[in-house]
Write a structure and sequence with these properties.
Mean pLDDT: 84
Largest sheet: 6 strands, antiparallel
Order of helices and strands: EEEEEEEEEHHEHHHHHHHHH
Distance between the termini: 16 Å
Low-confidence stretches: 181-185
Shape: globular
Length: 295
């Protein structure tokens, strides 16, 4: 590989691995997968993996995928097993992996959290896998791991741990949500259909100015119902989500296409470049120019 790759032990039983590199050859890497729960997020590239006798695919080999297509995967490993990863020459891989071993799960006070029984059961069922759509906030946390703020050696591990714990929390929440009975999920089938319609509309028009009243009208909901459903599902407002998605698109274009800062500001919906730079730094921990230079 040419680029950056690292693995760090953050706490007893909590590990963080990240890669931002180009594969220089077809590769088959073999190791042993320890027991635990692992969350995997690919921003670009993918990997074909064999764990024991199970074939697993992570990410996608589509280099043009944007952050709107990102899907997180969390899987369980009840006992140690063989692990083989296959990657393709010339592929750009940008990924973050957080592994939570039983000792970290047991000592973190998680057993007191409502719904933890679902996590415990998930851990005991080796090979179970759940996909979820990461929040815009989590996607930014992944970017911040790949492009960390230049803290000194004493503070960097703490910075990385805070982002890794965010990934762990959202992946564990996906497990508990998947295993809750339907009547306890807080949203019925009709609400899920409405939410899917909202998300499809936002993604279809993300390159345009989006206003709350217009979104509500176009998806056939009142503004209050729209806001209630969206906050229940994403723990944020519709417009905050839209702003974050537009920033994600601008970030993707800077990294992928090397566009100018002015063009990136336009994509993100900012008429003032200085305001765009401020929002970009708050979201990604660096300037648009720095993101473009990391192509």
């Amino acid at each position: 590989m040419r680029g950056r790759i690292a693995q760090v032990r953050l706490r007893e039983g909590l590990f963080l691995h990240w890669t931002d590199a180009i594969e220089m050859q077809d590769l088959a890497f073999q190791s042993v997968q320890s027991p635990g729960i692992t969350a995997v997020l690919f921003l670009s590239g993918g990997a074909d993996v064999v764990i024991g006798d199970r074939d697993v695919g992570f990410g996608t080999h589509d280099a043009d995928r944007g952050s709107s297509d990102l899907k997180g995967v969390v899987y369980s490993q009840a006992h140690s097993d063989g692990f083989t990863r296959h990657t393709a020459r010339g592929e750009r891989v940008r990924k973050v992996v957080v592994t939570m071993q039983p000792e970290w799960l047991a000592t973190g006070g998680l057993s007191e959290i409502p719904g933890y029984g679902a996590v415990d059961g998930f851990l005991k069922r080796s090979g179970e896998m759940i996909g979820w759509r990461p929040s815009a906030h989590l996607i930014r946390a992944v970017e911040q791991i790949l492009n960390p703020v230049p803290y000194g050696p004493g503070l960097l591990p703490l910075y990385l741990e805070s982002r890794a714990v965010e990934i762990a929390a959202e992946s564990l929440e996906a497990i508990t949500r998947e295993h809750l009975p339907a009547e306890r999920r807080g949203m019925g089938a009709r609400d899920h259909q409405r939410l899917a319609r909202i998300m499809d509309h936002i993604e279809a028009h993300i390159g345009e100015p989006l206003e709350l009243t217009a979104i509500a009208r176009d998806v056939g909901l009142s503004v209050n119902t729209l806001q209630r459903l969206f906050r229940a599902a994403h723990d944020t407002t519709v417009l905050n989500y839209v702003r974050a998605r537009k920033l994600d698109r601008a970030h993707d274009a800077l990294r992928r296409d090397g566009i100018s800062v002015a063009e990136a500001a336009f994509i993100a919906g900012y008429s003032n470049a200085a305001n765009f730079v401020t929002a970009f730094k708050r979201a990604f921990g660096g300037t648009p120019g720095e993101a473009r230079r990391r192509r």
